[in-house]
Amino acid sequence: MNIKRKKKEKRIRLLGSLSGICVAVVSLFYFFHAEKEEAEKRMVEIVNYVKVQCSTYTHFNESSESKSLLRAIESARQMSTNIKTETENGGQLSVDFLKENLQTLWVNAIIVLDTAGKADCVYSTDEALTNEITEYLQKDIIMDFAGYEERTYSERFARKDGSYIDIAACARKDAPGIVAIYYYTSPEFARNYTLTIQGLLNGYSVQKDGTIIVADNGIVVASNDESLLGQNTADNEVIQAMKEHTDSQHIYHLRKEGSGCYGIMLKQRDYYIYAYLPDTEVFHNFPLSVISVIFLYFLMFGIFWFWAYRTNLTHLKQEQEKDEKYKAELLIAAKKAEAANEAKTEFLQRMSHDIRTPINGICGLVNMADYYADDIKKQAEYRIKVKEASKLLLELVNDVLDMSKLESDEIVLEEIPFNLSSISKEVFVVIEQMAAEENIRIVWEKKEIIHRDFIGSPGYVKRVMMNILSNAVKYNRANGYIYISCMEIPSKQPGMTIMEFVCRDTGIGMTKEFQKCVFQPFAQEDTGSRTKFAGTGLGMPIAKNLVEKMGGTITFESEKGVGTTFVIRIPFKIDPDVDKREEQADVSEKSIKGLHILLAEDNELNMEIAEFVLQNKGADVTKAWNGQEAVELFRNSEPGEFDVILMDIMMPVMNGYEAAKIIRSLDREDAKKIPIIAMTANAFTEDRIRAKEAGMDEHVAKPVDAELLTKVIHKLVKYN
To answer: How many folded domains does the chain comprise?
Structure first.
């Protein structure tokens, strides 16, 4: 183990060294390119910004000049119109008139000339400048405009002192000649308010941003290094080197006076823009990056060394903890196994007690019936008690099986039409009898129902109602009450509604401690309740699981010695086709007398019982001992010979599902129509669904209720 740990330590340290070297190399490579990319990004942004600004400079100055000349033309035309209006209204062309219009038009002078170029009238703010302009206007090229009213003349004069004059002239409208005006812009104003390329570069530092040059026709017209202004680009070594590369999106390396630099060039309509930055400035952060990489290397090496140290240090501790954990897990597993065994033992003890009790009753009653064989009254009494014990035993088995299927999520919901009122009547027939025996009154408090026909699982709905109401009877007091309410609550989902069922009793109630576990399997208030109140302790868990399976909720309130109130809400799909369905006849009128029935059953006792029930009702029975025999009997029969087939499911040779499928597939008309009824101990919803899928029409669970079987056979034969 020690040798393995030492090897592991060496591997960790070697891994740390190699990792550190790799990280250092990659980091240096990354920092180099990162610095270069950052410089490239900055220089590309600079030259592109200068390009935009140069374009702005050109357009601004050209636009400014054009706007000024247009304004001058408009002023000249307006003055010509004003003179015509004045003379037509009897006025005179005078200095005062020109002075008045000069102030209105915001010009520096108004000059009115005749066709010979002589001044008819002149007014200005600067006489010397006006004389100069007047002489200029006397040119033939300008005087020619006197004969064309629609034409105008305009021009900007740039003077040596930096000032400029915008002049405009047009033909007079009152008489032959021209009208001229001009604007004067002082040198100070021109310098302060005229955009220059050099002014665009004032914010750039040579040290930080590099050298920026704007050249026009090979001459440097602007630069953030003013010593380069006016120089010829042909004399600049760096600029000549940059001219060989035309990529304006990436910088490239070149040599400058023995030192390296990175440069970029960009062409703008009238200008060439250059920018270059020394290597020392491009990689000014690289030494710091190198130091960081060295620090990172030693940090990683230290981490891996410490890791190796900690791995070795904690190895023994981990082994000790593993041993302790293993011992603890063994102890927990042992406790769980013991608890599981105890739970299993308790379950078996309970089931043994609950199963043996009705069986003991049945056996004892049979012995007593044998003893009083000649006493008809006692025989009838014992048969009733045997039936009750049998029902209790069947209820126990069903509860256990239902709970098992619910816990394993094997319960399947049906989607079949049913009438809630019919189900309620079936439940209350039983509950009212139970309540009458204990002198318990059932009172309806509220009944607000709009719909009664739904699509769902009627068997489970009936089961939930039966469990809740039977508990209300069993755990009630003598001469007590059960208050029932049923209300329909509108649902937000279309085609759906919510039924609320409330059951309130005046029984013994539940303690707060027991309320916490009322929905747990086999839960009962105390041990004595298992004999005082018959039951498995599964009624409430089954009810809760079924309600939740159907998308509903079940809640309760209880007080010891006062009573319990259960509230159940279940959503149902409203049956849209209830009006289209044919109403069924009354059960009391059903009969199977004279029907020929094919009975498939592999159990001799069950065969004997079924045969007795059917023959007692007047039916003729043909027996088959497995599915294969049933298929052959039907195949060899004449069409219409059999009126109905009763099919057990669990049979040798061929089961009932397979037999039903084969019969339905036979090439004869009655094979598709003859009623096939599953008569089996497989009594769950999923069994009924599977029977339907196999081609069977109905499902009757064992032990067989003779009246129910008669009803089902009669209904299927009548409507076949």
So the answer is: 4
